[in-house]
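Input.
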Amino acid sequence: MIEERKNEHIEICLEKDVRAHHNYWDDIDLVHRALPEIDFDDIELGTELFGIKMDAPIIISAMTGGTDMGKRINENLAKAAEKLGIGMGVGSQRAALEHPELFETYSVVKNYRVPLLMGNIGAPQLINQKKQRGITEREIERLFVMTDADILAVHLNYLQEAVQPEGDMRAEGIIGALPTLSKKYPIIVKETGAGISRNVAIKLKRAGVLGIDVGGLGGTSFAAVEHYRSLAMGDEEKAELGKLFWDWGIPTPASILEASVGIPIIATGGIRNGLDVAKAFVFGASAAGIAGQLLRPAAESYEAVLKELERIIRELKVAMFLLGAKDVHALRNSRFVVHGMLRDWLEQTEV
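Output.
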């Protein structure tokens, strides 16, 4: 059942337009610097995240696993991540814990030297659900072994759980489980499309997580994905629920500001190009996460993934040159203008 659901998710994302109706990166304009005072060839894209060096400040965000198609996608992504010296995360590994025959759909990434590799488990799996017990310490260790992960990402997907037919709806006790987990293992917490608010970010920092992937509104909407799944299943009530909450969440740029509490931030949600990556750094991110933009290339071939990522990296370097930023950290000194829906959001929230 899990394998079937994962295949459905991939197919829907490939065949349907499941993006949020507005991309909030378009509401940011960066102020051009006519005299950059740097040489293009001297621009340095390298960075360090969680003590690990990468050649560019990009993370291939968690997408999939648990299916034959997922295995192919993970392999193409891992090969490109090795080539470009960037980070990568795998999709939720719950499927392989329950069905060991799916182990290889994740462990395939071990064949490549990815500088920063993140495992993945859903927050609902940290506690007992109605039909399933919480994950054990031995199983957590298996998650690390499965991919040789440097870090485990605990993903928050309660919007998706709330609108899907088979969602896990118990959430009480998650924040209490994190401190024990973070004392024993290197973990981050990531949202999956609805963003992280300031009060949640503070709780996560206190719980000892190493960083936060804000996973904000603006990219793939998993409420939209579940809308199409429910339609196909003939569940009109859930389909309407997914449609209603299609654009629910905190915009990714706003979520970066909300989650700026003194630990590294990965900006995932609607990143399409190198200019978006630059904007994420200007707003305070430590790296940019890209998922939806890479799914179609990853389903095609390694070469297609590499071509897409090289385009994004090239665009980032051009943006840095036009802003006079010699390295990615210097981007934070760049001036910017906010307008449109993002401006409305920021003016009405306290950050």
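Residues 2-347 form a domain with the TIM Barrel fold (CATH 3.20.20.70).
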